Amino acid sequence: MTLEPPTPEQLKRMKQELDQDPEITKDDVKRLREWLKKQPHLPSHMEDERLERFLYGCKFSLERTKHVLDTYYRVRATSPDIFCNRDPLSDEVQRNIKDMSYFVLPKLTSEGYRVTIFRLNNTDVDKFILQELTKRVVMCLDVRLKEEKCLSNIMVVDFQGFTLQHFARFSPTLAGVRKAMLCVQDAFPLRLHQVHFTNCMPIVDKVAAAFTPLLKEKLVKKFFFHSNLDKLKRHVDPEILPNEYGGTAGTFQELNDAWRSKLEGYQKWFAEEEKISKSDESRRLKKMPQSASVLQDVSVEGSFRKLVID
């Protein structure tokens, strides 16, 4: 699976949108590396290209980038269930790939957005293991940090095959759910344009509303709920979508298998990163506060708002 790079026009738009100056970016990468070397609890081995992608994802805010880098390394030390034993050939990862489709489309949208799609392959609720899915998702995100940057991201969550029992495993009061949200929302420099939930049953709006206290307000505003795929195609170029959606990117099976192969190609890298890419909290000079957006205690009752499914 090769992720097609932005066109010259899309690169120009990326530069214009963030007013990116290449020389300033180089200086900021140097500043980040110097800062990392001064943090006794953090590793400083990350290559310049990845540091630049962290800067880009944080809109070139040095302080924001430092915070995300710190969180990136901290969750790797404090969440071994997600960040240890990340062998793409393990039974755990291979089982998740078999039971769930999760892949990034090879082509960008015309605007320069990268599209990621999730859908169940196996509707058996006992096969829906959030911890395994979270591990695989962050593995894919790490690979993308190694390989590319894009203007922003579009996430498509296809609820085909979901039942009430599946949604019960998404309770925002569960520690695993909160941890997954921390890993994806706060520990990666992920620029998010839109999240589309498609093939939604009526209960989806209430399930989604239960999560609003745990999410940043600007993120919730990017959510779109659709009862069918036709509504999705109003937002995403149809031709870049999977064949099952009327596009030409390949079948779900082909795309899922392509990302299986991509992850397997990083087997050695994942093993090496597991040893060095984490914080040493015993050496932290200043205690890092928990993420206010995810780890705070919240009351879900009374927090529902109406989310319209079109």
From TrEMBL:
What GO molecular-function term can you cite, just one?
Answer: phosphatidylinositol bisphosphate binding
By its UniProt entry, which SMART domains does this protein fall under?
SEC14
CRAL-TRIO domain location: 90-253
GO CC annotation, single: membrane
UniProt-recorded name of the protein:
Alpha-tocopherol transfer protein-like
Which stretches are tagged as biased composition: Basic and acidic residues?
10-23
- One family from Pfam that matches here is CRAL_TRIO
Q: Which CDD domains match?
A: SEC14 (cd00170)
Primary gene name: LOC113203513
Q: Where along the sequence do coiled-coil regions lie?
A: none
Annotated stretches, region: Disordered: 1-23
Q: What is the lineage of its organism?
A: Eukaryota, Metazoa, Ecdysozoa, Arthropoda, Hexapoda
